[in-house]
Structure formats: structure tokens, C-alpha cells
Amino acid sequence: MDAEGRPFFQNANASKISSDGAFLSGIAHSLQAGEVVGIQYGEKKARFKVVWVIDAGSVRKTEAGVQLVDGQRSPWEDLTRNDGIVLPSGSNKRRFARYKVLFPIQIGLTDGRHTVLQTNAVDIGGRGCYVETLVPLSLGAKIDVTFWMDSEKIHTTGVVRTSDPGVGMGIEFTALDNLVQERLQAYLEKLNAGFVDHTAPNNMLE
Q1: Strand, coil or helix: 114
Q2: Cα–Cα distance between 51 and 22 in angstroms, integer?
Q3: Contact 23/164 with Cβ under 8 angstroms?
Q4: What integer pLDDT is reported at residue 48 of this predicted model?
Q5: What residue ranges of the chain have pLDDT lower than 50?
Q6: How far is Cα 24 from Cα 17, in angstroms, rounded to an integer?
Q7: Which residues of 111-135 are buried (b: 16+ CB within 10 A; e: fewer)?
Q8: In sequence order, what are the residues at sequence separation of 6 or more whose Cβ sits closer than 8 angstroms to the Cβ of residue 89?
Q9: Which residue intervals of the chain are DSSP H helices?
Q10: In terms of Cα–Cα distance, which of 144, 149, 147 is closest to 188?
Q11: Which pTM value belongs to this model?
């Protein structure tokens, strides 16, 4: 359905895709943020929520950021098996499962100028995470990441590996040693199973 409630079907261009969303362009119909649309890739279909919409002119037409509706399966999951996180080759590549849990983290620029974001990762594993934000950092940006495991404060550097305007960004952790990665993975498994009440301590925002 378009913004006027009329059904339509057309081809569009999808870029900056992730397991949870995409950037669409070339849409010849008006859309409205908050609405749900059906998107087909190949033979697979799924429902997506429109997060933002802009009028990009006569050439690019309507552009929109869309996010996968909860309970839906991404139609392009074969293209985003690692959620945009670039992993090294070898045994670590598939060792860390990703969990769709709300996990408080703090993100700042490595130059220390200011804190960029106090937010939640919505998809996280031992080597990286995905953060929802309407204004993600640029691809390749180097960042500082801070989070808590119970009362222990963990700090690492990271790199933005995917940047999806209006949707979010994928982050690779670049300074966690193997032991901390494994401990984080075990902690996430407990959190996913409901055995941990994960609430960031008050000093998380210091």
C-alpha cells in the first residue's frame, strides 16, 4: 500500500542491505514512515516497516529505509549471513552465534571528542553487534565500545562494517581477546535463555 492506501507493485533498487533492513530507491509511489510493506527478493517475500522516507527527485524518485518486521524471515538472508560483519577466515568465522537481545552499550569516537551514542545492540555475538540508529556512523569509522557483563566493565575498539541510513550499523569488535569473546558469548547465551537480568549499572553513563 502507498501513502494514500492504494495497492501497488513495482521493481525497486535495494542497497546497504543487512539481515534486518535495507535502503530502497527508485520507488515511484509515495510511502509513509511507520507503514508496513511487502518486499520480494527472488522467490522470497517478507514484511518490512518503513522507517524513513525522502523525495530524492525525478531520477532517484522516492527513497526509503525499511526494517524487517518481528517474526519475519529476511528474503536476502543468504547475502547477509554475517549481518555485514566482516569476520576473519579460519575457525572463528562461524564459532560465535548472534543473539537478538537488547544489550546496552556505549559508543564513542576513538579520537575522544565526544560520546556518540548510549544505546542497545539488538543483535550481538562475540565478535560484533548491530545497533539500530536513524543516523549511523560512516562505513569504516573507528569507535570505542563499552559494555558490562554483570559488574564487569568491558572496553574494546571497533570498526563500522555496515552503515544503513535510517536503519542502523554493524560493528566489528577489534580488540577483544579470545577469552573475553568466549566469556561474552557464554553470557549472551544465558541472557538469551532468560537466566540473566541484564541491566547496565548506573555508572555505565560516566
Answers
A1: coil
A2: 10
A3: yes
A4: 92
A5: 82-94, 200, 202-206
A6: 9
A7: eeeeebbebbbbbbbbbbbbbbbee
A8: none
A9: 57-60, 178-193
A10: 149
A11: 0.52
